[in-house]
Amino acid sequence: MRKKEDKAVQQGTKMAERKEKEDNVLDFLKRMASCIAVMFGDDCETLIHDMSKPGHPIVAIYNSKVSGRKPGSTRDIYGNDSLETALEAAIRTHDYVNSQVITKDGKKVKSSTINFKGKGFSYAIGINYDYTLVEKMTDVCNSFINVNQNLFEMIEEKGNQKLDEIMDNCLTIVGKDPSEMNKKDRVQVVRLLKEQEAFQYQKAVTYISERLGVSRYTIYNYIEEVERM
Fold first, then answer.
1. For residue 25, with 0-12 CB atoms within 10 Å meaning exposed, 13-18 middle and 19 or more buried, which class applies?
2. Rounded distance, CA 133 to CA 128, Å?
3. What angle, 0 to 180 degrees and rounded to 10, lies between the N-to-C axes of helices 183-195 and 151-174?
4. C-alpha distances in angstroms, 95 versus 14, 20, 68, 112, 115?
5. Which H or E element spans position 100?
6. 12-54 residue pLDDT tens
7. Predicted TM-score of the model (pTM)
8. Binning pLDDT at 50, 70 and 90, where does residue 9 land?
C-alpha cells in the first residue's frame, strides 16, 4: 500500500513539474510574442498556437487586426478554418519562415511559424507582418525618385547635337568631304567653326579632329593660325 502511495506521489510530482515547465514555456512565448508586436508596430501580428489540440487554437494574440482573429480561434492566416485544410497537419511538423500569404481580403503578409515541442505539450509562435501599405509606399517612393538622364549627360548630348549641326554647316560651306581637304580647307573649316563659337562645346576639339581626320594637336595649331589672321 505504501509503495502505491509513493508511486502516486511521484506521478503527481512529475505531472506538477511538467505543468510548471509548460506554464514557463507558455509565459516565455507570450512575452516574446508581445515584445515582437510592440517592436514592429500595429501591422505585426504575433500569436501563440496550442499545437496539441485539433485546429491548433490560438492561446494568445497581439495586434490581431492583421487577421481579425481572437484567442480560441482555429482559423488560419488565410481566413480558413484550419481543421478543414492541409495546413493543419503540415504546420505541426515543420517551421515556416518568411513565407508569403495573400489573405481573403487582399492583404499581403509575411508569415512565419516556429514550433516548440515539450513533453506533453506543443506550442507554436506565429509572426504575421502585413506589408500591403509598405508595398504601396515603395511604389510611390520609386515613382517619386525616378529621374531621367543625368543633367550633365543631357547637356553634353544636346551640345553634341548642336555641334553636329554647326560642323555639317561649315563642311557644306567649304564644299568638300574631309577626306578630300588640304590644309587650307581644314583651316577654313576651323575658322568657320570658331566664328560660330563651336569650340565652346565640351570635347569640341576631340569631336572636330575626328570629323576632319587629324589629331587634336593639329586642331590646336589651326586655331592659333586662325587667331593670327
1. middle
2. 14
3. 130
4. 29, 25, 23, 8, 6
5. strand 96-102
6. 667 777 888 888 999 999 999 999 999 999 999 999 999 988 8
7. 0.61
8. low
